[in-house]
Amino acid sequence: MKAGRKNLRRAWQEGTAVTLAENESIMQVVTLRGSNLIEVTDGEGVKSLALIPAKFQKCFWIKNGNFVVVDASGRDEALESGSKIACVVSY
């Protein structure tokens, strides 16, 4: 058996924090678009669409107003090429 809850509680008590990589940023969820798409806004107020990978589909639930860690490495290139999805949820 796995010790999921025990390990989760231990990590919470130790106060481990998520460290952001170079291209990652924290964004707030504005609306849920459906089919693994959410609309997020960054600290400057710029809105963009983010994709939730299928591996996160049943792991956690996202509501309006939640904060997510987003990988926005190809954001500018995606917008220039005409794609509406600009970033991908990392955590």
Automatic annotation (TrEMBL):
Keywords: Initiation factor, Protein biosynthesis, RNA-binding. One of its GO terms (molecular function) is RNA binding. One of its GO terms (cellular component) is nucleus. Pfam families: eIF-1a. InterPro entries: EIF1AD (IPR039294), NA-bd_OB-fold (IPR012340), RNA-binding_domain_S1_IF1 (IPR006196), TIF_eIF-1A (IPR001253). The keyword RNA-binding applies. Residues 22-91 form the S1-like domain. The keyword Protein biosynthesis applies. Belongs to the EIF1AD family. PANTHER family: RNA-BINDING PROTEIN EIF1AD-RELATED, TRANSLATION INITIATION FACTOR-RELATED. This is S1-like domain-containing protein.
